[in-house]
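As the next step, I selected for study one protein, both as residues and as discrete backbone shape codes, as given directly below:
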Amino acid sequence: MMHYISYTPSRPEHYSRPYALPGDSIIPQPVFHILEVPVELEGKALPEDSSAAHALSNHQVKVDEELWNLSFGGAAADSAWTEDSRALYVNYFTRGAKKLTLAAVDAESGELVVLAADSSKTNVIGNNWTGSKSFYVSRDGNTVIWWSERDGWAHLYRLDVAGNEVEQITSGPWTVGTLLHVDEATGQLFFTGRGREPGHNIYYAHLYRMNWDGSGLTLLTPELRPGITSSTSIRGSKLLPLRWCGGPGTGG
């Protein structure tokens, strides 16, 4: 058993839950479900123990790997719905962070299809620690933009839906930070990068634009100043709001 003490109320409260140890024959496993909530209940808070009872449908996601060995974040940086809500894209690690996977989940059946994956004998680093996704999937579902360190540097890759590498979009001895926006109409990517500009602080982030066929890399923020700290990508908009860090000696 794993024991906890809550100090939130005026008096401490003791909690416990099963915790698997080496040699145990019964191992609790988390399960991943997709619930369809009735329209009249959308946006309303439901008790945790009753939300599933109100669902119109409840599908357990079928993951090939053992669930106890996976880490699902469930945050905006880890997952994204398609525009028609028929599929959910999920980004998850194995324990020990030795494998990072992007998969598409059918919302009606719970079937899961792997779109991309990186693995290592030591550990794999994803880009979701920045609060942004490590991936982008095109509207037609046929193209995946994947952030990866598979060549030793953090760069962007274009993959097909089978996970095959179509081409490496960015390359060189510098790092891509956050994939901010993808304009499918023009085939352009907007992202931050560090360490590419001579004489610039390697910890400062700059904004770049590039075609997703790997051509036309353009520096959009050449200023010698602290870099971009955040951005909001608005699908269908020509505007890309940015936030800059203005204090000297601080990174973006």
Remarks:
- The chain is about 0% helix and 40% strand.
- Confidence is low (pLDDT under 50) at residues 246-252.
